[in-house]
Amino acid sequence: MIHGDLRAGVTVLSAEFAPDLVGGAPHGPVIAPPYLDGYAQDIDPATVLVPEVLRTEADDDPDEYRGLDAPKVHGGRLLRHIEEGLPITLPR
Question: Burial of 74 by CB count in 10 Å (0-12 exposed, 13-18 middle, 19+ buried)?
Answer without folding.
Answer: buried
